[in-house]
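Hi, here's the filled form for the chain we discussed.

Project: internal
Contact: R.S.
Residues: 113
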Amino acid sequence: CVVVLSELCLGAPSPRYAPYVVAKYALLGLAKCMAVELARYGCRTNVVLPGLTETPLTATLPKKLFEFEATKNPLQRITTPEDVAGVVAFLVSRDAVYLNGAQLTVNGGAVMG
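And the returned structure, exactly as it came back:
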């Protein structure tokens, strides 16, 4: 079982982020190909797309950004590492045995669709 962590890239990207955005879309394409090609070996491949998450990587972002993003979220908070870990744990469990090629957005409903 393979779980790819990426990001949901919506709307116009910020200037100078082309390599980052291209890499994220490439991960989605790779995961889809893996879902098809590895299925014959009993290997499932799924993608988890977290929203803005408090991690060491985002620690340098302004606190106001986190507060603003939380106000736009139906659950009034941003994603935690535990939120993402729970979804990954589900995907590698026997409960998800028939999920293959799925993209699960973990963002509290901030982006629906």
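Let me know if anything looks off before we file it.
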